[in-house]
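Q: Two folds, back to back.
A: First:
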Amino acid sequence: MTCRQELCSCSLSHVIECPLSDCLADPGEIHTGEADLEGWTYTLQIPIGALTQLHRALDERREGPPDFPVGVIEDPRAVARLATFFRVVRSADPLERESRLLAALGHLVRVHGADRARNRPHAVEPGLARSVRDYLADHLAEAVTLADLEQATGTGRYRLLRAFARAYGLPPHAWLVQARLERAHALIARGIGICEAAAVTGFADQPHLTRLFKRAYGYTPGVLARSPRIP
């Protein structure tokens, strides 16, 4: 959970204060909570099976879920990654939701989990990265999930995300958004209507396309439609 101020007790520590920190409780850990006047709330509970799979994906020698020996962590990167996930939790793009969550949990397990895999360099896997890229390109307008990518490549999600990021410098969901924008740009420049371009390139609706389009190009799809020769 992430909270402003809370007092809780568990086997790790009798009293914990966590102003704007990440509070972690091991799977099966019994704990209590006592809020201050501002209150508190659980923000994320992860199934044990999911943590176990992630732990093993990070290091195949490990069995079972990870342990978190420190109940309260002050890690700006961990907080930022969780905050990013919560910003997109209602996103229409399942690939981004799942990727953001996996990035946040992977960081927590790798950096703060007991028996964590050592930070050793991993070889770049260009063949795997290309397979992921090709699948995304072939399913540009679809709501691609990590399960789809796993099935298409026969590779675990953590490994394929890591290979893709090392090869292309960004995660699959970000590459997919860029590819969709490039395709929509080409269609609109050819005279295709903005609503139609949004639909055939996987955007939820015209406002969704317009918002991301302006962020990427500095002008709206409407401006492009009126002046198709601008870059």
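A: Second:
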Amino acid sequence: MQIYYSQQYRLKSVLLKILVLSCLLAIFMPIKQAKAEGQLTIYCSVQYRVCEKMTQIFGEKYHVDAKFVRNSTGSTLSKIKAESTKPQGDIWYGGTLEPHFQAAELGLLYPYRSPKQAETIPQLKSLLAKHGDYTSIGYMIVLGMGVNTEKFKQLGIKEYPKCWKDLLDPKFKDQVQMPDPRSSGTGYTFIATLVQLFGEDEAFRYLKALHKNISNYAQSGTETTNLSRGDAAVTVGFIHSYETEKEKGAPVKAILPCEGDSYSLGGISIIKGARNLKNAKLFMDWALSAEAQEIPWREERMYQIPTNIYAKASPNSVDPKTLHLINFDFDRFGSDEEGKRLTKKWLDEVKLK
């Protein structure tokens, strides 16, 4: 007996076989990883763990083979200068803003005004209007002092310094550290802050007097860990770093000096001659987003203040509303000529005297 199948039945049977075959292929065929859409080399001047996390998340999100090279702000600027004829990096992320402006002045940056600048807090709009063709602003950091409370007990010092001028007290002899301004953006910001607060002549009289109490002009990033270890009683640095050390259990207290709150801003700039220009632009756009600006504190407990209007700041960050910010002159202190002049003056008249 012959059985005749309807055309509709035969079609359903064929479709069922195709579906089963597709499922088997999906199960037994090897799964291919998404290929990286190009590469990116990031010159990074924030904390190592933040560099690592930002690079990792960006690479995974956009399937980019991203890597980073971590150096202090001053050292990164020197590296970009040295490589100007054959750039090795694509984008410079982080570090104080003034060296980024110096790099732009020297023709070392590629012009790119990210559309994400529109989400920057209103207080920075005028600065971006002037300098945003080359550099965007990814975060704010506030300058201050950190003290090691256990070290103070050991030294028998009962009162913590309240003002910058308190650091000149002879009781702090060999107990103060500040970053070396030749390699550290933090150190340069400190000098620029003193010049703005006191005037240049008075600022350098202060630095000469402070030199008597300095035990070490630290390499960038080490002043905070040196304080945590008790190598110094007081160090000059950015407040968010002290908060991170305190959260780790170190006997560290952050202090905002009475003379007024100085600050710096974290720059993001594309390097002229970048070999991976498309991905460099993509990274800048992403780094300016609310999502990216929350990564340092959510993932790594680093408490710089976001500059994106939609980004949430950590409860452990300094509240900008409570600050008495000085009117920091980024145009003057972001000049390459002024930066070299002040650093050389410090070297000749303070450190080498």
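Q: And?
A: Residues 39-141+264-316 form a domain with the D-Maltodextrin-Binding Protein; domain 2 fold (CATH 3.40.190.10).
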